[in-house]
Every structure is written in structure tokens, then in C-alpha cells.
Design goal:
Layout: H1 2-19, H2 29-35, H3 39-44, H4 55-62, H5 66-79, H6 99-105, E1 108-111, E2 114-117, H7 137-143, H8 147-159, H9 162-179, H10 194-211, H11 219-238, H12 243-259, H13 266-284, H14 296-316, H15 322-338, H16 357-367, H17 370-376, E3 391-393, E4 398-402, E5 411-415, E6 431-435, E7 438-441, H18 451-462, E8 470-472, E9 493-495, E10 499-506, E11 516-525, E12 529-538, E13 542-549, E14 556-559, E15 562-565, E16 571-577, E17 583-588, E18 590-591, E19 594-595, E20 597-601, E21 604-607, E22 609-617, E23 621-630, E24 637-644, E25 648-655, E26 658-665, E27 673-676
Antiparallel strand pairs: 1-2, 3-4, 4-5, 5-6, 6-7, 8-13, 9-10, 10-11, 11-12, 12-23, 13-22, 14-15, 15-16, 16-23, 17-22, 18-19, 20-21, 24-25, 25-26, 26-27
């Protein structure tokens, strides 16, 4: 009897398999039901059929007519009047094309500046685990966020060419069916990882409502979106991470809950999202408005998702506390105040040197801050700030010094804060400098996270070697405290009308024996120059290497002990002050060990010059530097140490006939002074 039953089941499976429709041919709900008889009912079971407007859906469901119930559900979404911000009229058909979108239609995706063609598998599905030409799992992850669909959709609206919507239709069926079954476990495969899940929810919501009344997107694809969104919401609620990942994942949970409140879990998911997001904001944004990863790039990621969450709460009718709204304003204030004169953000930690102009302009409009408009337009619009032009963020430890708000202004970033909660580099006390519209001293950037590029360059980027710091016996800083439990104390910084002062220390170096501590103090004489004093306290002999990394567009010249740029416009000279006998070298694109490399964006990199000043010391030692900007040629300059001890250095600087006496204390801001003679 058992053998007969088994044979019957086997024959039934074989018959069903033979009758099964190919996934590529699925267009209607009937096709979908033939492909997977359980999917439609399983999807309908996710719905609260007592939700207002779902009466016809419920009636058909209770009668057992699941196909009719599913069709009624799609009719409900066509006519419920929700998500007006996403709904679009059907464009006038045409044969117009856009080359970049046509590249996507060939399954050639450009992910973080790397182009790769996704191959097909034997079953006709794309290989959603393909890692791109560099075997980079980041490539696979990001290609599964479906930003390429957003671009193709925009091109469809622009051109009306039906081939674009046909691609979206087949793409969605391919992906959603290939992603089944939902594993319901936390992991990091190419498809089911939190950031990718979160991104797809946002893209699909726009697609669904934008195309709900468009016959170009098949009813099968529309229903497949509805079938998969509950799984996406479940993942984002149950397996979300912390920090900026949480903001992306929980904002996606809120997206599903706000725009699809008909799901049984949506109301509870929205309550959970509000509670979780508010608590996360308290934990991941410092009181000065800086996100705790201390990476300008990811600060913006968090802010964008906090703001998206605010909009979703408006859609869902949820009120956020005043704290939440004020924190977003503070986050905008930070990016407005630390932006470079050319509108680009700080390049620090795992970030890219991208433009913040759009963010700051939007924030200025939202919060009625004409002074932010003034900053980002270099004074062409808005109202001149009453504070500044330099700003210090004490919890982040970020000191940004400026000569003014014009496009040619001097600008520097000095990092005297904690290590950061994620995406960190071993770069405490690093400085970056721009002047006259040109980057001069730079951070190395981030290169890549995985794959061949990362294997080679990521240690260089994340350790001290790619920063404007010192090495002790050739070794990098070690990790520091991830989170600050208090702001930087006032003895470490000072901003006045005529100068800025910042100072801090760090004493953990990898594989370095004995006791050693590095203190760096910086004085910016407004509109003139920077003075940097590095002090090394040590219990034994050391080799100290001071590194200055130049932007790759700079032409570098060594003139005696001075290293300077020889650009047509916008220059900087690094001038040692004192009588130390440095061993000076200019290194560019060195392979072993890696030195002299720069990455302004993910997967974009090339060689730059690193000026290395090596000094052998026997005891506690002070090293002083004049960083002198100039529009053209470096002016005549003389410097000398007037006095120095364990607590401060007093030095003289003369530039083009102007004489200054500058007192640079070690961590005692009150003693800082700049006297013009």
C-alpha cells in the first residue's frame, strides 16, 4: 500500500511539473496560480481582511475564490487613493531611448563605479549572487538593492518607451521568484541581508504605486511585490542591526507599514518602528548632532533615513517627539558648518568625497536657515552667519577652521575625537587642508570593502599609513575608544576672532614596545597659516615618521627641508620649524609597503605623493611645522623656535614681511596666543 501511494504521489508531481508554466511566461494571476498554487492564498493570509475597503477581497476569500480575491485586492490598490506622491500618469508611448538605461537592459550594472554583466543560470534566472568582475561581495549586495530599477523607471516616465517597463516587469518576476523561499534567518547572503532588504522595500513601493494603474506591469508582478513585502518587513523588524544600518532597515519597516497598512502586522510594525527609531537616534547621535560613526558619508546616510522616517510617520499619522525633530536639525547644522568651501564634505573614515550642496540647500529651506544658504553659496545668497567661520563639535571632536565663507577660503579639518562606533580609521589627530578652491592635504579615502581592491588597499586606508599623522617605529595607531562618554574638554580647543586652537593626544600604537604618547597641537592664524606642533613622549629611542599626503592633482616640489606644491593656483608649503635633521622622501604609488595612494570614491583610486619626514629621537621631543597656504608662489618665509619645554612651544613666524609670535601649548587652550608684531 505504501509503495502504491508513493507511486501515485510521484506521478502527480511529474504531471504537475510537466503542466507547470515557465516563470518567464507568467503574466496573469492565473499563470501565477498555475506556477505556485499556494502563493496567492499565502499572500492573502497576510492581510487584515477587515481593513476598510477590503470588503470585496474578504467576500471572495471566504467563498474560497482566491483568484478573485487577489484580483479584488489589486483593484483596491488601484483605487484607494493612497500614495499620491508615488502615483504617475501613463506616459505617451515613444521609441526614445537613454543610453545608460539601455546598458541596464543588457543586465550590465554599474555598482560603485565598477561595471559588470550579470550572467544567466541554467534555469533562466539571473545569477543574483554574482559578485562582479572584481569578485566583490559588495557588488552583489548593492546590485540587489534595485537602484537600477529606479533609474529605468525614471527613464520610462521620461520617454514612454515600453521596453523599459517590460524590463522592470521581467526583472521583478525573476528576482522575487528566485528569492523564494524566504529563509527567515539573519544572514549576509547577496539577497537576504538587511541593507538590501531595506533598499528594495523603498524601491518596490515607488514601483508598485507608480505602476499600479499601468498595464505594462503585469498583474502577476504587482501581486508578487505584495507577496514578498511581508517577508521583507519581517526581516527588517526581527533581524535589523544598529547605528546607520538600523536607520535604513527600520525606515524600510516603516515604509511597508505606512504604505501598506492593510497587512495584519503593519500597525504593530509601525509602533515598533517609532519606538526603535527614536531610541536609536538617542544612542547613535551625539548631543552636538554628529552621528557616532564620525564618518561624514554615513552621517548623511543616517540623516536621510531619519528624515524619510519623519515623512513616513506623517503618512501613517504618527507624531514624533520634539527631540527627534531637533536632532535632525542639529545633524543638518553639522554638515552645513563643516562643508568645504567648494560644497564637498569632509573625506574621513569609510567615506567618499561627495557634494553636500543638495543636503544643505534642502536643510536650509526646511528649517529656515538662511545662514546655511550663505555658507553653501559662498555668500551669493542668504544671510551671513553671526558665528563662525570656524566651528568645533565637542562630542565628535571635529574642528573645522576657515578664513571665511568665500569659495577661495582656507579650510582645515582636525580630528581630536573618539575612534567612532563603526567604519573607523586609525586616524586620530589627522588634518586635511584646502585653500583657494583646491584640496591640498588629504585623507586616503576608503578604496573598497571587499574583493581584490580591498584586499590590497584597505589596511592602508584604515590604518594610519594613509593619513597625515605620525608613525612610531613604522607602526600605526591602534584602535581607540569607540564612543565618547563626555565631550572634549575646553582645555583642548579654542576659537577666537583671530585664531583657532585644537589639541589632543594618543598613545596606543600597534606592536610598539614601551611607553609612547603623541600629542598634536594646532593653531590656525586666521587668513594666514597653520602651525602644528607634534610632541612625542617616550621611554626609549624611537623612529618617528611624520606623513603629509597631497592631493594627486598637486605638483610637488622639495626645496631643502620644505615640501611645497607648484600649482598654477592654490598652493601649500610644509615647512619644518627648528633644527631637527629629518630624512625626507617623496613617495608616490609605492607598492611595498603601500604608500602614496588616494581614493576619493569607492573603487576609484590612484597614486598621490606622500611627503615622509623621518626623525630618530632619544627622548621626549617636540616637532613643529608651518603649513603655509598661498594663492600663487610660496612667499618668503622665516621661522624659529623661541622657547620650548614639556608644556608649550613658543615660535616666531615671518611671512612676506608680517611677523608673528605664537604660543602653542599642549592641551591648555588658555595659554594659546598669537601676537602680530
Amino acid at each position: 500500500m505504501t509503495r502504491v501511494l508513493f507511486s501515485f504521489i510521484l506521478l502527480s508531481i511529474q504531471f504537475w511539473t510537466q503542466a507547470q508554466i515557465k516563470w518567464q511566461d507568467i503574466q496573469t494571476l492565473e499563470d501565477l496560480n498555475q506556477f505556485d498554487p499556494q502563493l496567492i492564498k499565502k499572500t492573502l493570509d497576510q492581510y487584515d481582511l477587515n481593513y476598510p475597503g477590503l470588503g470585496e477581497v474578504k467576500t471572495a476569500y471566504e467563498s474560497g475564490d482566491y483568484l478573485k480575491s487577489a484580483r479584488n485586492l489589486l483593484d483596491y490598490y488601484r483605487n484607494n487613493g493612497k500614495a499620491e506622491n508615488y502615483r504617475k500618469d501613463i506616459p505617451t508611448p515613444s521609441n526614445r531611448t537613454v543610453a545608460e538605461a539601455d546598458t541596464t537592459l543588457k543586465n550590465v550594472f554599474i555598482v560603485q563605479n565598477v561595471k559588470g554583466k550579470v550572467p544567466y543560470l541554467e534555469d533562466g534566472h539571473r545569477d543574483w549572487y554574482y559578485k562582479g568582475p572584481n569578485n566583490d561581495r559588495e557588488w552583489a549586495w548593492l546590485s540587489n538593492r534595485h537602484s537600477q530599477l529606479s533609474h529605468v523607471l525614471s527613464v520610462y516616465y521620461e520617454t514612454g518607451n515600453p521596453k523599459y517597463i517590460e524590463y522592470i516587469d521581467l526583472f521583478l518576476r525573476d528576482f522575487i521568484l528566485a528569492s523564494m523561499p524566504y529563509p527567515a534567518v539573519k544572514g549576509s547572503p547577496s539577497i537576504w541581508r538587511g541593507l538590501e532588504v531595506a533598499a528594495r522595500v523603498k524601491v518596490w513601493t515607488r514601483l508598485f504605486y507608480g505602476l499600479i494603474n499601468n498595464p505594462g506591469l503585469s498583474e502577476a508582478s504587482k501581486f508578487l511585490i505584495l507577496s514578498s513585502l511581508p517577508d521583507h518587513a519581517h526581516y527588517n523588524r526581527n533581524f535589523h542591526s544598529e547605528n546607520n544600518w538600523l536607520t535604513m532597515e527600520i525606515s524600510a519597516l516603516a515604509t511597508a507599514a505606512a504604505y501598506f497598512p492593510e497587512y495584519k502586522r503593519s500597525s504593530d510594525d509601525m509602533e515598533y518602528a517609532v519606538e526603535t527609531m527614536v531610541e536609536s537616534m538617542k544612542g547613535q547621535v551625539y548631543p552636538d548632532g554628529v552621528q557616532t560613526e564620525l564618518t561624514s558619508h554615513y552621517h548623511n546616510v543616517a540623516l536621510i533615513n531619519f528624515e524619510l522616517f519623519e515623512q513616513l510617520c506623517e503618512v501613517a499619522g504618527k507624531e514624533l517627539p520634539d527631540f527627534y525633530i531637533q536632532t535632525m536639525e542639529d545633524m543638518y547644522s553639522y554638515i552645513a558648518h563643516v562643508v568645504r568651501p567648494d560644497g564637498y564634505r569632509i573625506l574621513n573614515n569609510d567615506g567618499d568625497r561627495g557634494s553636500d550642496e543638495g543636503h544643505i540647500t534642502r536643510g536650509a529651506e526646511k528649517y529656515n536657515k538662511p545662514e546655511w544658504t550663505y555658507i553653501i553659496t559662498n555668500g551669493a545668497e542668504g544671510v551671513k552667519p553671526k558665528d563662525g567661520p570656524s566651528y568645533f563639535y565637542p562630542w565628535a571632536g571635529h574642528l573645522v577652521s576657515r578664513s571665511g565663507f568665500d569659495r577661495d577660503a582656507h579650510w582645515s579639518f582636525f580630528d581630536i575625537g573618539p575612534y567612532g562606533s563603526s567604519h573607523q580609521h586609525r586616524d586620530k589627530l589627522h588634518m586635511s587642508i584646502s585653500a583657494y578652491g583646491r584640496d591640498l592635504l588629504v585623507d586616503a579615502g576608503r578604496f573598497a570593502y571587499t574583493g581584490a581592491v580591498a584586499e590590497k588597499y584597505l589596511p592602508y586606508a584604515r590604518y594610519s599609513f594613509g593619513h597625515n599623522l605620525i608613525l612610531i617605529d613604522g607602526q600605526s595607531q591602534d584602535a581607540g575608544p569607540k564612543i565618547a562618554d563626555e565631550p572634549v574638554k575646553e582645555n583642548h580647543f579654542k576659537i577666537t576672532k583671530d585664531f583657532d586652537y585644537g589639541s589632543h593626544h594618543f598613545g596606543q600604537f600597534i606592536d610598539v614596545s614601551g611607553e609612547v604618547n603623541h600629542t598634536r597641537s594646532m593653531v590656525y592664524v586666521r587668513g594666514k597659516f597653520w602651525v602644528v606642533v607634534d610632541r612625542v613622549d617616550t621611554d626609549r629611542k624611537r623612529e618617528v615618521t611624520t606623513m603629509w599626503h597631497w592631493h594627486p592633482d598637486c605638483e610637488i616640489v622639495q626645496d631643502g627641508r620644505m615640501t611645497k606644491t607648484a600649482n598654477d593656483r592654490g598652493n601649500l608649503a610644509v615647512i619644518p620649524i627648528g633644527k631637527q635633521k629629518y630624512n625626507i622622501s617623496q613617495v608616490k604609488g609605492q607598492e611595498d609597503p603601500l604608500q602614496g595612494w588616494y581614493s576619493p570614491e569607492y573603487n576609484i583610486y590612484g597614486p598621490n605623493v606622500a611627503s615622509l619626514y623621518k626623525l630618530n629621537i632619544k627622548k621626549d621631543t617636540n616637532m613643529a611645522w608651518l603649513l603655509l597656504p598661498s594663492e600663487g608662489e610660496t612667499p618668503a618665509t622665516s621661522t624659529r623656535i623661541i622657547s620650548e619645554d614639556d608644556y608649550k612651544v613658543v615660535l616666531s613666524v615671518e611671512v612676506a614681511g608680517e611677523k608673528f609670535t605664537i604660543t602653542v601649548p599642549f592641551e591648555n587652550s588658555a595659554e594659546t596666543s598669537v601676537t602680530r608684531l
